[in-house]
Write a structure and sequence with these properties.
This protein is α+β, with helices and mostly antiparallel strands and 326 residues long. It has eight helices and seven strands. Strands 2-1-3-7-6-5-4 form a seven-stranded mixed beta sheet. Strand 6 and strand 7 form a beta hairpin.
């Protein structure tokens, strides 16, 4: 889908395959989502720019993420998407900044783009493509901050469960509860890693943007906004690192909790073995087939044997209880 935003307008024009390059004249922002076969040639005919493929966008080398071709600057960032689904992940988004327009290429629908589109619907599209780029970056940073706040709240919730004596249902934490906690910790760490990768690409873009925008043409307000974005991104990256350290602490605590639960089970079996060992010894003695055993002819021999077994089991139990081992 190819949408064209013109300066001052509040809505975008969606182009059809039958339209020609003239339909892109006067565009300050060209947004291409899930490119189809006809959109690349149309963009090439109108701007002379080759549309980057998805394979080009996922290249990890820095020289493939930010570079210049003539007057066009290509910048690719990673955005975190799908947090409301069971499969969160990161997707590449390319920004192509030219002196006359900004071109964005994406294969998903990030929330930050929808938020900036709503802003344009209220206030109109900026007249300068650099301002559009900064506006999109600001929306991405705001969205990233929301993601970190969400993950911080999730970490607090998991932390309360890990260190609680009982599950929210009121029962003791079961093996299934602890397994679910480990899964949640793993998912939080996965999202934080994706956020960290996204912030690293955003840092690279803010460093490259003054060159891409021909710094001499940036006014004071734009330079200040870019500095503010750089500070915000650096702050978010520090916050993501702090949350990652908390996740590792939670993981260690959860594994320790599992070890404690396992040790408690093993302790129960160990105590049971020690408690029942003396009665087993007594039963074994009186189960011997010797001819001369005085208790065999004794009328109280059977109650004596039972009482001796109970007493031999009670004494170790009371001793362990007094020492606080149970």
């Amino acid at each position: 889908m190819l949408k064209v935003y013109r300066a001052g307008e509040r809505t975008a024009a969606t182009l059809l395959p039958t339209e020609g390059p003239d339909a892109l004249e006067g565009a300050v922002w060209i947004d291409i989502a899930d490119p189809t076969a006809w959109e690349g040639p149309l963009l090439k005919a109108a701007t002379g720019i080759d549309l980057p493929t998805r394979a080009d966008m996922v290249e990890i080398e820095a020289s493939s993420r930010v570079y210049r071709e003539g007057e066009a600057s290509f910048m690719t960032v990673l955005l975190v998407v799908g947090l409301d689904s069971d499969q969160p992940g990161s997707v590449p988004v390319s920004f192509i900044l030219t002196p006359t327009c900004l071109i964005t290429v994406r294969y998903s629908d990030p929330q930050s783009f929808r938020n900036f589109g709503a802003t344009c619907a209220r206030a109109g599209v900026p007249a300068n493509p650099l301002d559009v780029m900064l506006g999109l970056m600001d929306a991405i940073v705001d969205r990233t901050a929301d993601l970190l706040e969400r993950e911080a709240a999730e970490i607090d919730q998991v932390s309360g469960t890990v260190f609680a004596l009982r599950a929210p249902s009121g029962k003791r934490l079961s093996t299934d509860d602890l397994t679910m906690i480990l899964r949640r910790i793993g998912q939080i760490n996965f999202v934080l890693n994706k956020v960290h990768d996204s912030l690293q690409t955003l840092m690279r873009v803010t460093t490259f943007l003054p060159v891409a925008a021909a710094e001499g043409r940036m006014d004071k307000a734009e330079r200040e906004e870019l500095k503010s974005l750089s500070r915000d991104i650096a702050s978010l990256d520090q916050n993501a690192s702090y949350l990652s350290s908390n996740v590792f602490f939670l993981l260690d605590a959860a594994l320790g909790r599992i070890s404690i639960e396992q040790n408690a089970i093993i302790k129960i079996f160990s105590v049971a073995a020690v408690v029942f060992l003396p009665p087993t010894l007594v039963a074994s003695i009186y189960g011997m087939n010797f001819e001369f055993m005085p208790e065999l002819g004794w009328q109280l021999g059977y109650p004596w044997a039972l009482g001796l077994m109970v007493l031999s089991a009670a004494i170790p139990y009371l001793y362990f209880k007094r020492r606080g081992w149970l």
